[in-house]
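Please, structure for the following, as tokens.
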Amino acid sequence: MLRACGARVFALVGVMAAVGGLTGCGHPEKHAERTGPPAVVASTDVWGSVARAVAGDDASVSSIITSASADPHSFEASPSDAAAITDASIVVFNGGGYDSWVEAVLDNHPDVASIDAYSLLDTAAVGEPQPANEHVFYELGTAGAVAQRLAERLAETDPGHASDYRKRAEEFVKRADSIRAAERALAGEYPGAAVVATEPVAHYLIRAAGLADKTPKGFTSSIEQDADPAPVDVAAVLDLITGRDVRAVLFNDQTVTEVTRQVRGAAEKAGVPVVTVTETLPAGTDYLSWQGDAVKRLTDALRESR
């Protein structure tokens, strides 16, 4: 479910050019000379928030994509972004092709410690066939695994605060598990309730909640490829909405097209609740609050539609 948009190609080329100008950055000797607290760099503020929950005040955390209006799929990395990655103590990124501009830098600097969230997805636990959906930041078990892996990496880098990193990771997992329990409660209350999504960003929320995603595969594939869905797929989505055959529409508010506007308009006209989802953090929130709010809004939508 990877986008093949032109912007991503240009971003990858830009990163590779930046990497070419950074030969020598991030080599082992440079990291060995680092003084002060560990520096964690995350590809997006979503993973930056997970990292910050573990790091506390004992390590610095910065994120490359921080704008709520940015679309991570079409992000174009700058030379300074590449430099931040190569100079980091630990890099946390999504993986699965979602932020391939990070992977391009890391491929040329294998000495930089990194955590690939996608690689930590337990496909058996979530019942996910391969290839899995790349939006693993909506899979709370994966976020918890990232927190625990980061705690161990930071403990190795900064042994003096090892117990603090591990305690904060445990607390993060505990809070994530409470949100997962709320997701599972939806599966018990609304088993198999039908929904459609303008983009499969919240795929793992839908799955954990036991809902049935009725979005035509052709529609989803086209949107992911930055292409207009075939008229037959658009018509199928609109028919589901106008016939009130779905309980909610999940709407990615960071990738809006004429087609997705049409879908949202149809939902509003038919009285089908719209649940807005995003790929980066809304201003003033953190990862767990963001995920908890998404579950609450979905719960409210399902109750309203009943």
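Residues 251 and 298 are 11 Å apart (CA to CA). Strands lie at 39-44, 60-65, 90-93, 113-116, 194-197, 212-213, 248-252, 274-277.
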